[in-house]
Design a protein that fits this description.
The protein is an alpha+beta fold and about 450 residues long. The chain contains ten helices and twelve strands. The protein is rod-shaped, with a radius of gyration of 51 Å. The two termini are about 40 Å apart.
Length: about 450
């Protein structure tokens, strides 16, 4: 695996190196083609001119060669080589600056023999290129006349251009690598800082990440991580508080049961039947608390292992009201629309609507109004009591937050958790009593 720095840097370095090299290679290929083409055109023109002078004029070869070498038409150092019928060459211009020697003459002669008439031959000798072409004569006596030039004047220019290109390319590569390193560092350094801070994060404190970067994406990443860290901290704090409250709620009935049991054992209570009744009441209270905790846990983890089905909320509400009416002296007035359905689960519906309705019965003075309507793609349930209302400044849906006559403070928390599991929403207001509004989506095509 590669680091992010390596993954960003390697393509840049590859491009930085390959582009100048490609330019140099292409330049030299084009120049090489130009050199060959130019040499062939120049040789053809000069050979034709030489042939005309040799055949049509009475000028001596030595004098003609001298004129040819100082001719403005000549772009390179040139020589004419005359061979006899045996391939031995005669040089008519004995000047100290000539480049012809026996080996070059032999290579030129052999190349011309092995090539087609009128073709240019390229001879490589001592790391130097020579271009040769035969002068075609109509009255040749069997010998050969070859026109040969040593490279081109452009070679020196090409050499200088290549040096300049290499120097410029080296400078550009160094600058590009420096810029690439700065850009890479500006990207990877904040990420490395974020990684280091994440490694030191824990659920017992809130750490704020500051990337010190002008990148919108990195700023957003840091913001999301900070938010996630805050959520984890709040969750841990909530769980800790939950465990403390649960322990307190469990300890009270357990201590009562233990106290009554010890009293019976030591003979403190003469009426053991009444004491046993007290123990039973505390056990019932303890069982109710444990059941509430289990209901809350199931609601929080419902989506992990359960599925939804189409349920008729209208029928469910009517059955729930029918079930609660005989066991309370509160008048429950209902207005329920028919056949309002949603994707739900009976346990979650009972945990949500059942707890809200039970809470209303506990705090109502005389009556409760329950209404169910369908509006757009939502089922809206309103449960209103005529009690003293709720303290809106308190988060009544938090665990163990309870009113004056509350039991454990878990009912509303269970209700909200169950409603959230059903993709619903709950809110509360005061209007001559508490008014709870529950909204469930009724889009049956969605599978939660």
């Amino acid at each position: 695996m590669l680091t992010l720095r390596q993954k960003i840097t390697r393509p840049y370095v590859f491009i930085i190196i390959s582009i100048p090299l490609t330019i140099i290679i292409i330049f030299n290929i084009i120049v090489a083609y130009y050199k060959i083409t130019t040499a062939e055109e120049d040789l053809s023109a000069q050979v034709t001119q030489v042939a005309e002078h040799l055949q049509d004029s009475s000028m001596q070869i030595r004098d003609f060669m001298h004129l040819l070498r100082i001719s403005p038409n000549s772009t390179n150092q040139i020589e004419l080589i005359i061979y006899d019928t045996k391939g031995e060459f005669l040089r008519y211009l004995d000047t100290p600056d000539t480049f012809i020697n026996q080996e070059i003459a032999r290579l030129a002669y052999n190349s011309i023999l092995n090539s087609s008439s009128g073709d240019m031959c390229i001879i490589n000798y001592d790391n130097q290129k020579y271009y040769a072409m035969e002068v075609i004569l109509t009255d040749s006596l069997g010998g050969k006349i070859i026109y040969i030039t040593q490279g081109l004047i452009i070679d020196d220019f090409v050499w200088m251009v290549n040096i300049v290109l290499c120097l410029v390319s080296t400078f550009v590569m160094l600058v590009a690598i420096f810029v690439s390193n700065r850009v890479t560092t500006s990207i990877t350094k904040p990420i490395e800082n974020i990684t280091a801070l994440i490694e030191n994060m824990n659920s017992f404190e809130v750490l704020t990440i500051d990337t010190k970067s002008d990148s919108i994406e990195l700023q957003k990443l840091a913001s999301e991580i900070n938010l996630l860290n805050k959520r984890i901290y709040d969750f841990q704090k909530s769980q800790k508080l939950f465990l403390q409250n649960a322990s307190h709620q469990l300890r009270t009935p357990l201590m009562s049961i233990q106290g009554y049991a010890d009293g019976i054992e030591m003979g403190v209570f003469k009426d053991t039947k009444a004491t046993a009744k007290l123990i039973s009441n505390q056990a019932i209270k303890l069982t109710s608390l444990v059941n509430s905790l289990l209901s809350l846990a199931r609601a929080e983890n419902f989506k992990e292992n359960q599925t939804f089905e189409v349920l008729n909320i209208s029928v469910f509400l009517e059955e729930l009201i029918t079930e609660l009416t005989p066991i309370t002296n509160i008048d429950i007035i209902s207005s329920i629309a028919e056949d309002v359905c949603c994707l739900a689960n009976s346990e979650l519906l009972n945990g949500s609507i059942g707890n809200i309705l039970s809470n209303a019965i506990r705090y109502a003075k005389h009556q409760i109004h329950v209404t169910l309507n369908k509006q757009d793609a939502n089922a809206i349930i309103i449960i209103k009591d005529d009690g003293d209302g709720v303290a809106l400044e308190d988060d009544i849906f938090e665990r163990f937050v309870k009113g004056e006559h509350g039991n454990f403070g878990l009912g509303l928390s269970i209700a909200k958790t169950a409603i959230s599991a059903l993709s619903g929403n709950i809110s509360v207001t005061n209007d001559n009593g508490a008014v709870f509004t529950i909204i469930f989506p009724t889009n049956l095509s969605e599978n939660t």
